[in-house]
């Protein structure tokens, strides 16, 4: 797990101020990073707070941001009255959670919830002559906008310095404020010490104040935190410490404007802000727990029901990404083509690569956001075609840059208007999107020196992937990456993949297929205890999650004897696509009953420039299952579960499970809590209305309307259908088919995982025999679908 490094100048050389720098570091660590739009990944916005119980963090945020991390009481009252939450669920939530409520008192709470907690107030909240503009967000938008703003910036090396300089030329600032700001030290550490000395708050209160103020510019704070995750050099100049200094300085200027009596009240408020307060929202968390138990009961009933396994050995095995959208397709594919068995694996297929062939500007990482690419991949194509492709992309980049030049509004439209007019007409008349495609890879090269990877590295990569797949038994293995298509959509990358930097998995599948088809690699695998069928061949494919069409990248080298197996897979995939589209269509408002018309309508959604919701993405994700496919085959999981194959008998030392719990489990939790946060706290963690979005910096992020605040998380259209909430806000339930001592040993070795489980950021369960047990402070408790038994 990569973490932002501490800048060299962060800690003060003056011992008396070190507690304040440490407090500020804790405040900034509470802000999670974000990635740019074109490399978007779902992020747990409370990642830096995982060492605290979720209820405690919720109480703190209700004071600091004005809202707890649950839905309002009316939401749970509706679920209770509709039977979505049963009395059984409430009883079990009270017992397992140790909440200090009786059943009747908990039900009464829904009718008369207490008043909301009064949030902490900034000095600017009490000023009648408040600035009326947002200088912090505006400065961030200007400083980081290196794409749309083409005037020479001549900016200082730091964000804080840039803010101080530009403020002196902003006439919206009163002269007294500009002079006071100019008087602050130019170094962030010295400015922080100056402010801390002036206020004389306790370090604990200073931490609460800093975190509260950062939440007011949460989008930009998250962006600055992301800079620290990606580059220690950039962090020094533009990391979150720079922004923290700015918010403290702005508050300091506000306090200076207050009358003396209000200054005393302001100091008293923050001096008491770190006091331990009684739990404010315990009842809501009990209802949230009961709401989640209702889902867990249904899931346990499904998982413990008999499986519809195939009795014959498969002719084809198809490995899909664990993405929840693959669950529906896999279920229908196995039904449509009984000779095809499906597997679940992380969709980058254990290939930590960056795609260097995407264009002349920069390579695109094709790995989960928490992993650094080890290798880069090129594209195999005739030299002439490669040069033409590169030149074409270079021309496109030149036009993009020209569009953002200072005078482009006066010159570009007049000189290229007709050409762009034809393009607009052509794109508008385009009726459908096609299945995303990618070129064949030329090979793998080291990212740091460009040298081809060594033989032993190829073997290690191949062995790792085959181990994750559980040693394939079919002669034909198809690695199915997924992708999506939509036009005029800044959040397209989030629909493509919620984990791998917003990139589809087709290139990874093609790289892995080429690697596994290498005769030398196959021969070497026999000497490291990896047995393969004979013959054995691997093909790559793309599953478009918008249309549920699958495109197979055929290979002339494939043995002819495998053609019937491939035909069976392709025919089954076509039938599975029809069935999956039929299942998905009603939720998208697509009411065509004919298969061809339904496919056409879905494909048109991706080509429609005005479509804010081409597909639902990973909405309603609720569980991750690490188990053999036999435990879930044929079972309707409603497109809500991440499915990763895991065979406990093949993993006696638990090393494979340890890798799954520290990687796919973590990624699934981040996706889950991204959706949860955007649902329960949309003003802070949601991106707002897509109809009002403007893109900042080409790919940096979006703002809503004329506000300069950066909006992060998911847009309203990704979780709501109009005014109706479509996403069910549930914490992730992780179900593992493994002995409990193996799971507990991994938790004991990884405090990060233990924090997530023990502090209830997710639920951990194990599947064994005919039961599902959930982990709690009281040990493992059995979940039952029988609501009348009173036993959990």
UniProtKB/TrEMBL annotation:
Keywords: Cell membrane, Membrane, Metal-binding, Transport, Zinc. Residues 571-596 are annotated as: Disordered. It comes from the Bacteria. It is a peripheral membrane protein. It is found in: Cell membrane. Zn(2+) binds at residues 321, 323, 482, 497. It holds the Pfam family DabA. Its cofactor is Zn(2+). Forms a complex with DabB. Part of an energy-coupled inorganic carbon pump. HAMAP family: DabA. Belongs to the inorganic carbon transporter (TC 9.A.2) DabA family. This is Probable inorganic carbon transporter subunit DabA. It comes from Vreelandella gomseomensis. The lineage of its organism: Bacteria, Pseudomonadati, Pseudomonadota, Gammaproteobacteria, Oceanospirillales. The gene is dabA.
């Amino acid at each position: 797990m990569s973490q932002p490094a501490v800048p060299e100048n962060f800690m003060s050389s003056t011992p008396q101020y070190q507690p304040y720098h440490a407090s500020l570091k804790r405040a900034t660590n509470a802000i999670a990073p974000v990635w740019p739009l074109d490399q978007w990944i779902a992020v747990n916005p409370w990642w830096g707070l995982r060492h605290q119980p979720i209820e405690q963090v919720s109480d703190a945020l209700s004071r600091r941001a004005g809202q707890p991390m649950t839905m309002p009481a009316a939401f749970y009252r509706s679920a209770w009255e509709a039977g979505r939450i049963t009395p059984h669920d409430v009883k079990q939530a009270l017992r397992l959670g140790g909440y200090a409520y009786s059943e009747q008192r908990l039900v009464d709470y829904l009718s008369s919830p207490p008043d909301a907690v009064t949030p902490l107030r900034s000095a600017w909240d009490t000023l009648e002559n408040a600035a009326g503009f947002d200088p912090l967000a505006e400065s961030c938008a200007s400083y980081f906008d290196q794409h749309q703003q083409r005037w020479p910036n001549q900016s200082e090396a730091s964000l804080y310095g840039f803010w101080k300089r530009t403020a002196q030329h902003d006439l919206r600032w009163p002269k007294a404020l500009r002079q006071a700001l100019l008087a602050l030290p130019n170094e962030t550490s010295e400015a922080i010490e100056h402010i801390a000395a002036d206020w004389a708050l306790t370090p604990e209160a200073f931490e609460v104040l800093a975190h509260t103020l950062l939440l007011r510019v949460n989008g930009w704070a998250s962006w600055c935190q992301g800079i620290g995750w990606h580059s220690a050099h950039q962090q020094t100049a533009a990391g979150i410490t720079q922004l923290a200094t700015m918010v403290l300085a702005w508050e300091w200027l506000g306090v200076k404007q207050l009358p003396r009596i209000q200054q005393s009240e302001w100091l008293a408020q923050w001096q008491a802000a770190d006091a331990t307060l009684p739990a404010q929202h315990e009842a809501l968390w009990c209802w949230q727990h009961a709401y989640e138990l209702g889902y867990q009961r249904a899931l346990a009933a499904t998982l413990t029901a008999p499986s519809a396994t195939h009795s014959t050995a498969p002719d084809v095995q198809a490995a899909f990404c664990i993405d929840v959208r693959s669950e529906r397709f896999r279920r229908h594919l196995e039904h449509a083509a009984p000779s095809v068995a499906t597997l679940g694996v992380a969709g980058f297929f254990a290939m930590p690569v960056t795609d260097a062939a995407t264009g002349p500007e920069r390579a695109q990482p094709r790995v989960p956001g928490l992993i650094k690419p080890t290798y880069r991949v090129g594209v195999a194509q005739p030299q002439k075609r490669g040069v033409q492709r590169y030149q074409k992309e270079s021309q496109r980049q030149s036009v993009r840059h020209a569009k953002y030049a200072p005078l482009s509004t006066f010159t570009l439209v007049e000189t290229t208007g007709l050409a762009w007019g034809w393009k607009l007409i052509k794109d508008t008349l385009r009726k459908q999107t096609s299945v995303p495609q990618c070129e064949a890879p030329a090979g793998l090269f080291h990212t740091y020196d460009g040298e081809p990877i060594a033989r032993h590295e190829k073997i290690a990569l191949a062995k790792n992937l085959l181990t994750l797949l559980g040693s394939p038994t079919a002669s034909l293995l198809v690695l199915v990456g997924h992708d999506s298509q939509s036009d005029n959509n800044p959040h397209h990358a989030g629909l493509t993949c919620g984990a791998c930097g917003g990139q589809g998995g087709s290139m990874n599948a093609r790289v892995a297929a080429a690697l596994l088809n290498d005769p030398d690699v196959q021969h070497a695998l026999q000497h490291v205890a990896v047995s393969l069928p004979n013959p054995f061949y691997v093909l790559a494919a793309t599953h478009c999650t918008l249309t549920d069409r699958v495109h197979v990248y055929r290979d002339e080298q494939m043995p002819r004897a495998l053609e019937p197996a491939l035909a069976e897979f392709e025919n089954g995939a076509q039938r599975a696509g029809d069935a999956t589209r039929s299942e998905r269509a009603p939720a998208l408002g697509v009411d065509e009953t004919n298969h061809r018309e339904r496919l056409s309508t879905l494909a048109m959604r991706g080509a429609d420039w005005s479509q804010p919701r081409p597909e639902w993405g990973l909405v309603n994700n609720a569980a991750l299952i690490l188990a053999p496919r036999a435990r879930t085959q044929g079972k309707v999981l409603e497109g809500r579960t991440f499915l990763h194959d895991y065979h406990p008998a093949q993993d006696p030392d638990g090393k494979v499970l340890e890798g799954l719990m520290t990687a796919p489990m973590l990624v699934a939790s981040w996706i889950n809590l991204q959706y949860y946060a955007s649902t329960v706290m949309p003003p802070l963690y949601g991106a707002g209305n897509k109809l009002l979005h403007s893109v900042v910096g080409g790919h940096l992020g979006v703002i809503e309307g004329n506000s300069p605040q950066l909006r992060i998380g998911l847009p309203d259209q990704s979780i709501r259908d109009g005014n109706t909430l479509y996403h069910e806000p549930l914490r992730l339930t992780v179900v593992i088919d493994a002995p409990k001592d193996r799971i507990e040993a991994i938790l004991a070795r990884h405090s990060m995982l233990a924090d997530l489980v023990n502090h209830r950021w997710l639920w951990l369960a194990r599947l064994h025999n005919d039961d599902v047990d959930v982990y709690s402070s009281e040990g493992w408790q059995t979940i039952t679908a029988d609501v009348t038994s009173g036993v959990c």
